[in-house]
Design goal:
heterodimer, A: 457 residues, four-stranded mixed β-sheet, two-stranded antiparallel sheet, B: alpha/beta
């Protein structure tokens, strides 16, 4: 075991000491946070001022400067006593303060036109357009209520909102508060993380094996340690590099996120608690809160305060989630890494890996693709079988975990994964110890099969 | 007395038999040459001795008992296909490989410093392997092989790829190791280095040991019965005198004349002298002892006679 430790040490240190490791660790958080910060900042600073000259050919007792409510520091309306053409000409002059002309034709209601026109010299943006439209609609709506003798205040008061709090009931009949959006985001996030980790570091293991084989150092090493120790040392060492990288990345992301949040939000005088998703922004698909790891589903949930999500988030079964994540993360990686190592040992250069990699990447990608269906229907047959089958379970099961998985399924899946890990490591070890000493030979599947039966020690 | 004995080693690969009941006996403190054409099974045998692979049957005895995993710390191995991590620094890498052989970090570092001084390469310590020339890399590999001061050194084609200066450096170092009582096994195609360095040899051909023994004894045993005779006198009479019982292989006129003669049937050197004395004045007679090269070629190519080419002493 002592020699395996020396190998782990080298594999770990030689990678962590490289500048590229630090670039790859620090850059993604910067990009993620930087990008989100920019998006949020832009979304919040959408409030470029629009001055709208209103040309009203319709009913000026209904649409006038009193009823057209200005959007504070956002959109100002002035009714101008001009015709459409004149107003447009006036607005388009360089010296003019107006950025747009809103033309309300005489046939707005009567002729069934139902159209208003906006002419602009500076793009008002989707939010502003939406606001201008709803401003007019609001005036018409209130007027219509009044006309029909309906008290506006009563209408508002009758509009009662409820929040749907769905609760998962576990086997003991205990209620668990859940929010589907959070479950989906958390599950999918964890699945992506595992998927990427397995892929990135699995391929690194394979490259490492090929490197040693191409360098011909492998024969010197295996005259001191057993091939299996070398393979295991490499897999564990690289796995630790990956863990280090992910922990650092998460730390950096959070650190930067908190920094960026204070920076962006303080410059806008907004605190997180007051953020409600603006309908306009929500329609644009901007997720305001990805910054803090709390994801708000756009659309239906747009007016639910962030606190409720935090609440639902804190109600998740973290013990199960963390244990499962760590378990699937480690065993998923170990299982695939040993197979990647076997592939690396069987070839002389990376281009020859294609034929052997396919059977490894297909289940991995399949698990990833299927996660999107599993998110919709976590307990359906796809979700069930994918999360039991060991080659897909590290990705598929993680999608299901936040929704709650029956214990027997979890244990079955974990047990199968652990057993398969033992089996594939044994298998990979057999291929590896023969493969690393074979030079200049294109290997077929049949050949690989034969290697399993060579006698060593 | 024997440091290493391989008994009836058999190793099968999917479509061929790499080693077919191969046995070798390596005395302690000798230089042992493992000879054989390409593909004969030398590397397979060396890998088994290094415990990189295991035999299908047969035993490897080390120091009088069955070899065990810990014995790798007492063996130093320089493979034929050798290399180092290209991106790793020379010193760091050598310390790593030393540690894998069981040295402590400090001990490996201390010994390496000594070796680097001896071979005048202290300036290389912090260089990456890829910055070194091929010859320099091989020096590093050679040092790594010796670093843990193994009792048994196994070198697969140690001289291939070395320039003459480095090859000489290594030859001298091997002789020094021998003087210190170390046992050395090396495989090679270079027969002159065999004659120069080896005490014992084994010739492996088509997966079998076809010859094993002391180099001098082997050479004596493979004398083809050819004599070189130097004489004064004319060739005509000389040739006629060899009419029966002898075969004239080669003649060179000069002062004196030289002739190579094979004894046929039951003829002895005395018969040869008796036959030629009446017609020539014999200046000298000596028997040709074959070089390892000839023995190698004759045994491997399956000819019973040594090919009459390039005879050396």
């Amino acid at each position: 075991m002592g020699k395996t430790r020396i190998i782990i040490q080298r594999e770990y240190l030689s990678r962590v000491k490289k500048p590229s490791f630090w670039v790859m660790t620090i850059l993604p958080p910067f990009l993620i946070i930087g990008f989100s910060a920019i998006v949020i900042w832009l979304a919040l600073s959408e409030k470029s001022v629009s001055r709208v000259a209103v040309v009203n050919e319709w009913n000026d007792s209904l649409i006038n400067e009193r009823t057209l409510i200005d959007d504070k520091d956002h959109i100002y309306y002035d009714v101008v006593p001009l015709g459409r053409e004149e107003a447009i000409k006036m607005m388009s002059e360089k010296s003019s303060d107006y950025t747009a002309v809103l033309y309300i034709p005489a046939n707005l209601i009567e002729g069934g036109g139902r159209q208003i026109h906006l002419y602009f010299k500076k793009t008002p943006g989707m939010v502003a357009e939406e606001r201008i439209k709803s401003n007019i609609e609001r005036i018409l709506y209130q007027n219509q209520l009044e006309y029909n003798g309906i008290d506006l205040k009563k209408v508002e008061a009758s509009r009662i909102k409820v929040n749907l709090l769905s609760r998962k009931v576990d086997e003991s009949g205990k209620e668990v508060e859940t929010k589907t959006g959070i479950n989906m985001a958390l599950g999918f996030g964890m699945a992506i993380l595992i998927y990427m980790f397995i892929f990135l570091y699995g391929v690194q293991v394979m490259r490492g094996v090929i490197e040693e084989k191409v360098n011909r150092i492998v024969e010197i090493i295996v005259s001191s340690v057993r091939p299996f120790q070398l393979m295991l040392g490499k897999i564990i060492g690289i796995g630790m590099v990956g863990l280090t990288q992910i922990v650092l990345m998460i730390a950096f992301t959070f650190g930067l996120g908190i920094f960026a949040q204070n920076f962006v939000l303080s410059s806008k005088n907004i605190t997180p608690e007051t953020i409600k998703v603006d309908p306009g922004i929500a329609k644009m698909g901007v997720n305001m809160n990805t910054l803090e790891g709390k994801v708000v589903q756009s659309g239906s949930a747009s007016n639910i305060p962030v606190q409720e999500y935090i609440h639902a988030f804190l109600n998740l079964d973290f013990v199960t989630i963390i244990i499962s994540f760590v378990f699937y993360f480690l065993f998923g990686y170990l299982l695939y890494a040993s197979l990647f190592a076997a592939v690396g040992s069987a070839v002389d250069n990376e281009t020859d890996t294609q034929q052997f990699l396919l059977p490894l990447t297909i289940p991995l990608i399949l698990g990833f693709v299927a996660s999107q269906f599993i998110m919709q229907d976590p307990e359906g047959p796809v979700g069930f079988w994918m999360s039991i089958f060991p080659l897909t379970s590290p990705v598929a099961m993680l999608v299901r975990i936040p929704f709650g998985v029956p214990l027997w399924q979890l244990l079955l899946s974990m047990g199968l994964l652990a057993l398969t890990f033992v089996f594939t490591t044994w298998l990979a070890g057999k291929i590896y110890r023969t493969g690393i000493l074979m030079y200049g030979k294109k290997v077929s599947w049949k050949e690989l099969g034969k290697w399993l039966f060579y006698k060593n020690h | 007395m024997h440091l290493l004995v391989c008994e009836d080693i058999v190793k099968k690969y999917s479509n061929h038999l790499a080693l077919d009941r191969v046995s070798i006996h390596v005395p302690r403190g000798c230089v042992y040459g493992l000879l054989g054409p390409n593909g004969a099974g030398k590397t397979s045998l060396i890998r088994i001795i290094n415990q990189i692979t295991g035999p299908d049957s047969g035993n490897v005895m080390f120091d009088g008992r069955k070899i065990v995993a810990d014995d790798t710390a007492r063996v130093g191995y320089l493979p034929e296909e050798r290399g180092l991590y290209k991106k790793m620094k020379v010193g760091e890498q050598a310390v790593y490989l030393g540690r894998l052989k069981g040295l402590s970090k400090a001990e490996a570092r201390k010994r390496l410093k000594e070796w680097f001084e001896k071979f005048e390469m202290t300036a290389w310590w912090d260089k990456k392997i890829e910055e070194l020339s091929k010859g320099m890399q091989q020096k590093v590999q050679f040092i790594v092989t010796l670093l843990h001061d193994p009792e048994l050194l196994i070198l697969d084609e140690p001289f291939s790829g070395f320039d003459p200066i480095n090859a000489n450096l290594i030859k001298n170092e091997l002789l020094e190791q021998k003087k210190r009582g170390k046992t050395i096994i090396f495989s090679t195609h270079n027969m002159s280095s065999v004659e120069e360095l080896c005490d014992e040899i084994a010739l492996i051909h088509k997966s079998k040991t076809i010859l094993e023994g002391n180099v001098n004894e082997v050479r004596q045993a493979h004398k083809p019965g050819i004599f070189e005779l130097e004489f004064k006198g004319n060739f005509m009479g000389f040739t006629n005198a060899l009419w029966t019982g002898f075969e004239l292989l080669e003649k060179t006129e000069g002062k004196p004349n030289k002739a190579r003669i094979r004894l046929l049937g039951k003829s002895t050197p005395n018969d040869l002298l008796a036959a030629v004395l009446p017609v020539a004045e014999v200046v000298g007679l000596r028997e040709i002892i074959p070089g390892m090269n000839e023995i190698f070629i004759s045994l491997v190519s399956g000819k019973t006679e040594a090919a009459p080419v390039n005879f050396t002493e």
